[in-house]
Amino acid sequence: MDKLRLDSKTLTLLFLLLLFLWLQCLESNNNNEIVGEEAAYLINLRNNISPAPSTWFTVTNMCEWSHVTCSFVLFNNNTRHVEEINLASKSLKGKLPPGLNNSLVNLRRLDVSYNSLTGPIPSFVGLSSLQELFIEHNFTSIPDFSFQGLTSLQKLILDNNTNLSPWTFPANLTASTGLITLSLYATNLIGSLPDTCHFFPNLQYLYLDTNNLTGVLPKSFEKLLNLKYLFLNDQSLSGRIEVLSSMTQLQVAWLERNFFEGPIPDLSNCTMLRYLMLGDNQLTGEVPPSLVNLPKLWQVSLANNWLQGPMPLFNTSVNETKLEGNGYCLDHPGPCHHTVATLLQLAQAFGYPLLLARSWRGNDPCKGWSFIRCDVQGKIRAVNLTKLNLNGTISPAFANLIDLQELYPGGNNLRESIPENLTTLSQLKILDVSNNNLSGIVPRFSPNMMINTTNNAFLVTRSPPPTLLPSPTKRTHHLWIKLGTL
Ligand SMILES: *[C@@H]1O[C@H](CO)[C@@H](O)[C@H](O)[C@H]1NC(C)=O
Ligand SMILES: *[C@@H]1O[C@H](CO)[C@@H](O)[C@H](O)[C@H]1NC(C)=O
Ligand SMILES: *[C@@H]1O[C@H](CO)[C@@H](O)[C@H](O)[C@H]1NC(C)=O
Ligand SMILES: *[C@@H]1O[C@H](CO)[C@@H](O)[C@H](O)[C@H]1NC(C)=O
Ligand SMILES: *[C@@H]1O[C@H](CO)[C@@H](O)[C@H](O)[C@H]1NC(C)=O
Ligand SMILES: *[C@@H]1O[C@H](CO)[C@@H](O)[C@H](O)[C@H]1NC(C)=O
Ligand SMILES: *[C@@H]1O[C@H](CO)[C@@H](O)[C@H](O)[C@H]1NC(C)=O
Ligand SMILES: *[C@@H]1O[C@H](CO)[C@@H](O)[C@H](O)[C@H]1NC(C)=O
Ligand SMILES: *[C@@H]1O[C@H](CO)[C@@H](O)[C@H](O)[C@H]1NC(C)=O
Ligand SMILES: *[C@@H]1O[C@H](CO)[C@@H](O)[C@H](O)[C@H]1NC(C)=O
Ligand SMILES: *[C@@H]1O[C@H](CO)[C@@H](O)[C@H](O)[C@H]1NC(C)=O
Ligand SMILES: *[C@@H]1O[C@H](CO)[C@@H](O)[C@H](O)[C@H]1NC(C)=O
């Protein structure tokens, strides 16, 4: 053990040795140069952009060029590598020459934003050290697979390349699983979003707005659990937005001016939400009551949709609300008439289809609501929903329409059972549920009612009367069964 103990003399020697090595190292760094294809690319770049920084002409060691950062080398190996080029806001004209990915293989950061560069964006394929890429403004094309194999990428910003020939969402980005910011604002994106969001669990900022995207939000959107900013506004996206409800870190959701439909989801777990901008879509149904109590909510736009039910009354801490252009039952907050509330429960069980929302607005179902027939006294007597392509279920809330005489939900795609409490409708004379996907057992209705259950493969009638059966083998194809004869 004693032999290992270092005395002060040895320590001093060791220190001097380290100092010498360090000075050597600094010395060698100063002398080391960018060589080979990397140097060739930088020269090529200098020749293609204008005005290139002046040191690019006056200084020979490229590592001392302004806006270029090189790797640090420990031992004299005669080579250094370009790690960063930052030419943001330099009023540059010209092009980025091709061949970048075959030469600047150690590149970590490239920023050429806010210039007037044009032409194709070069390929970055295989640049596994690349972390940040800023290529904003006025390029004209992106080669296929440009973003393949960028395993270290954290930020990709391509904003405002409005002259790009139309391209689709870069499918090859899936190797960039550490992506934090993806901004493709105004880049002429077309087509639909691929179902690959589960590759981006760290994504926090997603800007895809002002493009021409179509189609629905893919299921994997719900895997974006760290998303804080979501911008999808101003394009042709459609379908439902329930994926938002799982994004508990969401602060900004900007979805205005698309064709989103269905109800606003329950966002009660999105407690960080500050901006909820859903205006100018085709959203339907009631505004979820929990929405008005979100603690950080600051601005909300629900304007110009097909929202129904009570107008929401937001907390006074909310700075701005735009609610106009919807179908609330009243023009001020407050509960709806009970028949309206009931009919909206029915609509809810069908998933609040747009078809109903376009007409089921206001506070009086007898004033022009489609598919509803009232008598002169304003009692709802018939609901005819035949062949509307409805999905979902028959709500037990139908039982609250106590004056109902005829109910036709036939020819749709309805599932599950016929609610037991429809039997309490004492005036019901006709129930036509034919041609659906209903299952379960047909409840025991009053003897005077006509029920048509034809063509519901899994619907079972309790001990069908043998006399009414067309043939003993065709048990599932019921005709009008007068239950009084049971
Ligand atoms: C010198 O650098 C090159 C390129 O990075 C590398 O491939 C090579 O192994 C290095 N040589 C030494 C002796 O460090
Ligand atoms: C981009 O191009 C548009 C026209 O295509 C032009 O109006 C705009 O000034 C350009 N932007 C820059 C930063 O060069
Ligand atoms: C550079 O990109 C081209 C085409 O995109 C590709 O064939 C090549 O393998 C890439 N180079 C590297 C070093 O990955
Ligand atoms: C995009 O360009 C427009 C007009 O040139 C400008 O107002 C806007 O700030 C730019 N946005 C981004 C994100 O660069
Ligand atoms: C890149 O995209 C193409 C076309 O979508 C696909 O064939 C290829 O497998 C993708 N490569 C990677 C690494 O994702
Ligand atoms: C979408 O495409 C249409 C034509 O297909 C075009 O007029 C419009 O400017 C595009 N919108 C955006 C935001 O690029
Ligand atoms: C909110 O989070 C809790 C706990 O994770 C979960 O049980 C519940 O279903 C969530 N609610 C919504 C509306 O997503
Ligand atoms: C919203 O906030 C802005 C600035 O913070 C303020 O000027 C404005 O008066 C506020 N509006 C309302 C309705 O509180
Ligand atoms: C119900 O609506 C369907 C489709 O609009 C129509 O053909 C049928 O005659 C209606 N039935 C009654 C009883 O009004
Ligand atoms: C029912 O679902 C189908 C398939 O998802 C869909 O095409 C249809 O529009 C839905 N019907 C309504 C009324 O929303
Ligand atoms: C029918 O059932 C639903 C739920 O099961 C209930 O809310 C409703 O009050 C019932 N209506 C009648 C009239 O029994
Ligand atoms: C029952 O419904 C089916 C399908 O809509 C129809 O063909 C049949 O005529 C109906 N039965 C009676 C007795 O009206």
SSE topology sketch:
Layout: H1 8-31, H2 36-48, E1 49-50, H3 55-58, E2 68-70, E3 82-86, E4 93-95, H4 100-103, E5 109-111, E6 116-118, E7 132-134, E8 155-157, E9 167-168, E10 181-183, E11 189-191, E12 205-207, E13 212-216, E14 229-231, E15 236-239, E16 252-254, E17 259-262, E18 275-277, E19 282-286, E20 299-301, E21 306-308, E22 320-322, H5 338-349, H6 354-357, E23 372-374, E24 380-384, E25 406-408, E26 430-432, E27 439-441, E28 450-452, E29 458-460, E30 481-482
Parallel strand pairs: 3-5, 4-6, 5-7, 7-8, 8-10, 9-11, 10-12, 11-13, 12-14, 13-15, 14-16, 15-17, 16-18, 17-19, 18-20, 19-21, 20-22, 24-25, 25-26, 26-28, 27-29
Antiparallel strand pairs: 1-4, 2-3, 23-24, 28-30
Organism: Stylosanthes scabra
Membrane topology: Single-pass membrane protein
InterPro entries: Auxin_Ser/Thr_Kinase (IPR052422), Leu-rich_rpt (IPR001611), Leu-rich_rpt_typical-subtyp (IPR003591), LRR_dom_sf (IPR032675), LRR_N_plant-typ (IPR013210)
Strand order of the largest sheet: 2-3-5-7-8-10-12-14-16-18-20-22
Which stretches are poorly predicted, pLDDT < 50 over at least 5 residues? 466-486
Which class do the helix and strand fractions yield?
alpha/beta
Distance between the termini: 103 Å
Mean pLDDT: 90
Membrane topology: Single-pass membrane protein
Main location: membrane
Keywords: Glycoprotein, Leucine-rich repeat, Membrane, Receptor, Repeat, Signal, Transmembrane, Transmembrane helix
Subcellular location: Membrane
